[in-house]
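Exercise: predict the fold of this chain.
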Amino acid sequence: QILLMESGGGLVQSGGSLTLSCTVSGLSFGDYSMGWFRQIPGKEREAVSCINWTGSRTYYSESVKGRFSISRNNSANTFYLRSNILEPEDTAMYYCAAADRREFAYCSESYFKGWGQGTQVTVAP
């Protein structure tokens, strides 16, 4: 059974920073791409960032490019999303996910087979 556990969400002021972490078990972590997605109530879940199995390739959505950074520590079965210069528009439930392959062609939900429960990020104006 694949298990993903997020941590690091919370309330932050506009312009502030947060680091989200996701610890994964139940699969060979270093053999799969990982990703972060987010969802605002009433809207579809959207891709935020993805990272391939070695960490050599990453993707960022246009809305977070230059402000967020994804990384992974394969020896700790954990990956991260460093979020800087947060804006109220970043307020959402953030989900980490494990892909079903080493490389991703697109940072798309269709490639991801395991999901965390989500961690809320709220950015106050």
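Check your answer against the key: The chain has a mean pLDDT of 96.
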